[in-house]
Design brief:
- The chain is α/β, with parallel strands linked by helices.
- Helices cover 38% and strands 22% of the residues.
- The strands form two sheets. It has a six-stranded mixed sheet, with helices on both faces. A four-stranded antiparallel sheet has the order 2-1-4-5.
- The chain starts with a strand and ends in an 11-residue tail after the last helix.
Length: 269
């Protein structure tokens, strides 16, 4: 289980990105984090794995308080937190296989990875993951030859080969077309269900969040203003999160599209 306790992030400018955040995410739950730009969504995700240092508060992953770990212990703890980035963060000149295997850096070390000396079990797992996301035939392609959707799938494989307990997903569909966005969201949710993984997905697209996840958390000005199921996102709630807009049209569109979207079974915590 992931637990955030009174998490605060204040920048040197005095801007408070997060204000006393309390949140629990059970094993196996996929949570969508929504809110306007500047609400603190990306900051929250990065405070969890300490790519951004919290100003105060606690972050717990199971029995480990991440906010108290020194550099070496933090590196080991990050093995259990897979990160999927908006801009993919692939090494363009490396092959698909090499990019996926880079997710094992926390286990094999820099020099072995530089020499491409990965254990055979890691190579076998990389092939299995590529097959699962439909890209086995591209294992030897360079990353710069891939489309946006293909790159995101490689990013997902790289995160999963860490054997994480938690996925932190930052705007996975921001650069993708609508069809590919649905495919990526469906894939993430299916993989989490298959592996019993918890996930926090920072996403701007409210419709996608409503279609694919069982829990939505809304941030505004660094505070949680909504925490509930996707069907509870009424026009009033969306106005509270984002401000005035014709939310009825958005909700109607989601209801129409959900009929076509295959629901992803949730894993009980």
């Amino acid at each position: 289980m992931l637990q955030l306790k009174k998490l605060v992030k204040t920048y040197r400018t005095g801007d408070q990105a997060l204000k006393m955040i309390d949140l629990e995410v059970p094993d196996g739950q996929v949570l969508a984090l929504i809110g306007p730009s500047g609400a603190g969504k990306s900051t929250m995700i990065r405070c969890i794995n300490r790519l951004v240092e919290p100003s105060s508060g606690e972050v717990w992953l199971d029995e480990t308080e991440l906010t108290r770990l020194g550099a070496g212990a933090l590196r080991r703890a990050r093995r259990k937190m897979g990160m999927i980035f908006q801009e993919y963060a692939l090494v363009e000149r490396l092959t698909v296989m090499e990019n996926v295997l880079s997710g094992r850096l926390g286990y094999v070390g820099f020099w072995r990875s530089l020499a491409r000396r990965y254990p055979q079990k890691d190579v076998d797992e990389a092939f299995r993951l590529l097959d699962r996301v439909g890209l086995l035939h591209m294992a030897d392609k360079r990353a710069d030859e891939l489309s946006g959707g293909q790159r995101q799938r490689i990013g997902i494989c790289r995160a999963l080969i860490q054997d994480p307990k938690l996925l932190l997903v930052d705007e996975p569909t921001a650069s993708l077309d609508p069809k590919t966005s649905r495919q990526i969201m469906r894939l993430i949710c299916e993989l989490c269900a298959e592996r019993g993984l918890a996930a926090i997905i920072n996403i701007h697209d409210v419709a996608l969040a409503q279609m694919f996840v069982s829990r939505v958390v809304g941030l505004r000005f660094g505070e949680i203003v909504f925490d509930g199921g996707p069907t509870e996102l009424s026009p009033d709630k969306l106005t509270e999160i984002y401000g005035e807009e014709d939310w009825e049209a958005t909700i109607e569109t989601v209801e129409d599209e959900t009929e076509e979207a295959a629901p992803v079974a949730a894993v009980a915590p």
